[in-house]
Specification:
The protein has 12 helices and no strands. By secondary structure, the chain is mainly α. The radius of gyration is 21 Å and the shape is elongated. The mean pLDDT is 93.
Length: 231
């Protein structure tokens, strides 16, 4: 392991760092490293590096997902589909609330009195919102007539399969967003899911993602460290 992973720290600096990050946040790292503070912090740093690598790849999938789904919803319900009563009647109250909040948040960053462009609203919607649109109860109202077309000219994946894939990615995204440990997960399997979703949505986007991805390198780094330390 390169010395650059964690700078040399004296006992006082080590204590300060642990106190700042806090014992509860470091608890999983400390358990994994048998309460060795220095090893726990090295593992913490490696976790941040692999998290950052995943976040870069997740961004391609999230952008592709929202733009592809937005395109089909625009075709079906108009450019402001998020205000269309027919569409709103299909989704649950939680999704309706997310849409209202997105419109409110977008308006805060737009000149008062001027119409907010639909794209600004779409950018405010969460990954979870798009995942919710692939729920089983929306298969016939949304997936079959509209969303499955987002994968043209290729055959769309099965809705249930795609829903499960998005759920795995949503869980990973949430863990990373809340700065939680991911080193203990089957990261290569998750990245394979990420690749499959990107490929289904847009092969060209998937190609760029894979060409620039550092996930494999960072996963190997944290995996190698864990193996040597018996974690």
């Amino acid at each position: 392991m390169s010395n650059s992973v964690l700078p040399t720290l004296d006992s006082s600096q080590l204590q300060q760092l642990v106190a700042t990050l806090t014992q509860p946040r470091l608890s999983k790292y400390l358990r994994a490293s048998r309460n060795n503070d220095h090893q726990a912090l090295r593992l913490y740093v490696l976790n941040t590096k692999v998290s950052a690598a995943f976040l870069a790849d997740l961004h391609y999938v999230e952008i592709a997902l929202r733009n592809k789904f937005d395109g089909e919803l625009c075709a079906g319900f108009g450019p402001e589909w998020f205000k269309d009563q027919t569409f709103l009647a299909l989704v649950d109250r939680r999704s309706q609330g997310i849409l209202l909040k997105a419109q409110s948040d977008a308006a805060k960053h737009w000149p008062r009195g001027r119409p907010v462009p639909p794209g600004k609203v779409i950018a405010e919607l969460s990954f979870g919102f798009w995942h919710n649109l692939t729920d089983s109860r929306l298969e016939h109202p949304l997936w079959v007539p509209y969303l499955h077309k987002a994968f043209r000219p290729r055959k769309a994946p099965k809705r249930a399969t795609f829903n499960q894939q998005l759920e795995k990615l949503r869980q990973l995204r949430n863990r990373i967003a809340h700065h939680e440990p991911i080193f203990h997960l089957d990261l290569m399997a998750i990245h394979q899911t990420l690749r499959e979703v990107a490929q289904a949505l847009c092969p060209a986007t998937a190609a760029v993602m894979l060409k620039t991805s550092t996930v494999r390198r960072e996963v190997m780094g944290v995996g190698s460290y864990c193996k040597r330390r018996g974690i």
